[in-house]
Amino acid sequence: MSDNIESRLDKKMYALTHRPLFMFALFSSTSMTVLGGVVVATSIPNIETYFHDIPHIDILSKLILTLPALFVMIVAPLSGILLDKFGKLKFLIPSMFVWSISGASAIFWDNIYWILFTRAIFGIATAFVMTSASALVANYYTGKERGAALGLQGFATACGSALFMCIGGFLATYNWRYPFLVYAIGIFLSILAMFVLFEPRAPRVKSHHHDINHAKFSIMPLLPIYFFAFMAMITYYTSPTQIPIFLKNNLGESEIMVGICVSASALAYGLSSLMYPRIAKLFSMRSIYVIGFALMGFGFLLIFLFHNAICVSFGLLLVGAGGGPIITNNSSLLLTKTHTSNIAKAMGILSSVSFFGQFISPFISQPIVRNYGIINLFLIVALSLFAMMCISIVRRV
Known about the structure:
Blueprint: H1 2-17, H2 20-32, H3 35-38, H4 44-50, H5 57-86, H6 89-104, H7 112-140, H8 143-172, H9 185-196, H10 208-215, H11 223-236, H12 238-250, H13 255-274, H14 276-282, H15 285-305, H16 309-336, H17 343-372, H18 374-394
């Protein structure tokens, strides 16, 4: 009798979670987190010019992209604990509203430090949105459907990034403040999520002994996954923090062209994430890491060798094509190694290390630019990615 009830509940869950409006609300909320930096990436050169008299503006301007990542790093593990204890939706909806308001409010400030303050609040909200939305995806979908859902999540995220990066580039041609307005769309997504999403029921526990053995959380088996996520983000975020400067200052391209070129990476990221279930059938998880880091490395090597917008765009396509499967592979592998009761906690730590990689990226890349030039930076990043490829070959995951 209980098995029949369980079967009916599973069928109802399947019907609810595969409705187009439901999937749009869910994956829109997950895509919001990546929009945090890329939306305003095209404004960075103009922000540097506008605040040119501020000391160290070359780093401060890039912190507009990456400072939220510091607060995600700090808050995400705590958010995972709270979500596992109190539920996901209780935090997701309010955090989406705070995300939208704090992100758009930067348009009103004429002080770089107040802008950075709003970005800090934005980062705290991002931590809760990212962890709760990712945990919901893991709870709504299981088995092969989870892999497909993770791919669809990456696709929605990247397509949103590509679209809004182009919109940001267009708006930045009028004023560097205007791209911040794009964050206001989160208010409408919050209202939609409020009415469409639901708190998933807790998994049925078969026995007390089974629950004790599998609910214990250990971070040690997950360390390689966190390390790959950290390194992938450090190198990947060289693109939105340095490529716009390179395209505008070195190649003389317009803000619109900057948005189009940089969005090439997001587009490839989305398509490769969408194809992840098929990729996972053809290659082992280790091979996906190897191929992904190799593609990213060749992408930055191409940018180092050829200095025109077309080659930069093609190089960024390779970067995105490699980055998408790596990030999706991280989430998929993490979920296979984590008990359901600890998913939010594990995803919170993954969010933390990923966003720490984003935050620290300009602190690593900018000194290299100052001492060796921005072109040589791309060679160093390429070599670092090839080193990660070698580590992937010898390291078991």
